[in-house]
């Protein structure tokens, strides 16, 4: 996960949403550079947290354009709320590639 936000909350939230054994690269520079990291979450989920001062806004714009042109593929599955128990089991078994979206209207 590449975090380009200029606030601390998205960096803290990234530790919750990144996949097990995932890596978070903080590129954005918030006004307040201090944030809270839950060491239990980092260790238990095997998360790597990195910072990078390489690159600039133009570089980030290029990365976003790669995504917009479809050069970066993130698999997305959309499921109904009724399938939630099955989805949670898949997540616990680490059987999910990409992102699961729960549509509450289904």
Automatic annotation (TrEMBL):
GO terms for molecular function: alcohol dehydrogenase (NAD+) activity; metal ion binding. Pfam families: ADH_zinc_N (PF00107). GO terms for cellular component: cytoplasm. Keywords: Metal-binding, Oxidoreductase, Zinc. InterPro entries: ADH-like_C (IPR013149), NAD(P)-bd_dom_sf (IPR036291). Its cofactor is Zn(2+). Residues 4-68 form the Alcohol dehydrogenase-like C-terminal domain. This is Alcohol dehydrogenase.
């Amino acid at each position: 996960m590449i975090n380009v936000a200029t606030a601390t909350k998205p960096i803290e939230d990234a530790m919750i949403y990144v996949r097990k054994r995932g890596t978070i690269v903080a590129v954005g520079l918030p006004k307040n550079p201090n944030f809270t990291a839950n060491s239990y979450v980092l260790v238990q989920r095997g998360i790597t947290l990195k910072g990078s001062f390489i690159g600039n806004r133009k570089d980030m714009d290029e990365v976003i354009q790669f995504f917009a042109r479809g050069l970066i593929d993130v698999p997305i599955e959309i499921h109904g709320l009724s399938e939630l128990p099955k989805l949670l089991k898949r997540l616990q078994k680490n059987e999910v590639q990409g992102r699961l979206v729960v549509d509450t209207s289904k």
